[in-house]
Amino acid sequence: MKKKASTDLINKNTVSEEFLEFKRKKKWGDKLTGYKCFMLYPRSLYITWGNREYWTWDCFEETGDENIEVAKLSHVCWLDVRGKLTMSDLSPEIEYEIVYVVKLTKGASGWELPIRLKLSLPDGRVQERQVCLLEKPRKQWMELDVGNFQSKDGESGEVCFDLFEHGGHWKTGLIIKGAILRPKQS
């Protein structure tokens, strides 16, 4: 099933896009600054219960007629999506932000409890926040802000970012396009 995905979130200020790891990631340079940006698509994320019984995997047309796979939640009671990127892949001494790009279907349900977004840095610092999806608009891409951090020159380790809700009730209708790491927008 081929659908057209919104590319406004990524492509309005980009130059030199490059797909990595068999289209599981995309890397580009910000047009104004040249700083490195990344999009991690769902196949490069760890999705608990990510098999076809609980999630469906559909192709969306991305820029340049590239087909990108997205994950659509059929039903789970334990939502857990995790991503990570090596700090040395990022531009040094830049304040980055991380967002998950998601959409709720018209029939999405089970979002009465807020989801949690968590950012973990190599030095042990953790940021965590909650977002209620119940009142969010349906059928349009939205960004869920995970958090911000400063990259450091020569820093090793990984930045980790999680989206989860372990409330034990069934949830449906969430589509995950991926996670974006980019210089913080002012």
Any descriptors?
Protein PHLOEM PROTEIN 2-LIKE A1-like, PP2-like/Lectin, single chain, 186 residues, 5-stranded antiparallel sheet, mainly beta, 9-stranded mixed sheet, disordered N terminus
Describe this structure in words.
This protein is mainly beta. Strands 1, 2, 3, 4, 6, 7, 9, 12 and 14 form a 9-stranded mixed β-sheet that branches. The chain has a 5-stranded antiparallel β-sheet with strand order 5-8-13-10-11, with no helix packed on it. The protein has 1 helix and 14 strands, in the order E-H-E-E-E-E-E-E-E-E-E-E-E-E-E.
Number of helix segments? 1
Q: Write down the overall mean pLDDT.
A: 86
The percent range for helix content is under 10%
Strand content range: over 45%
The assigned structural class equals mainly beta
Low-confidence stretches: 1-14
- Assign an overall shape: globular
* Gyration radius over CA: 16 Å
Order of helices and strands: EHEEEEEEEEEEEEE
Distance between the termini: 37 Å
Tally of extended strands? Answer: 14
Largest sheet: 9 strands, mixed
List the helices and strands and how they pair.
Elements: E1 2-4, H1 8-11, E2 14-20, E3 25-30, E4 36-40, E5 46-47, E6 55-61, E7 67-73, E8 79-86, E9 95-109, E10 115-120, E11 126-131, E12 142-150, E13 158-165, E14 172-183
Parallel strand pairs: 1-6
Antiparallel strand pairs: 2-3, 3-4, 4-14, 5-8, 6-7, 7-14, 8-13, 9-12, 9-14, 10-11, 10-13
Nutshell version of this structure?
With 186 residues, this protein is mainly beta. Helix content is 2%, strand content 54%.
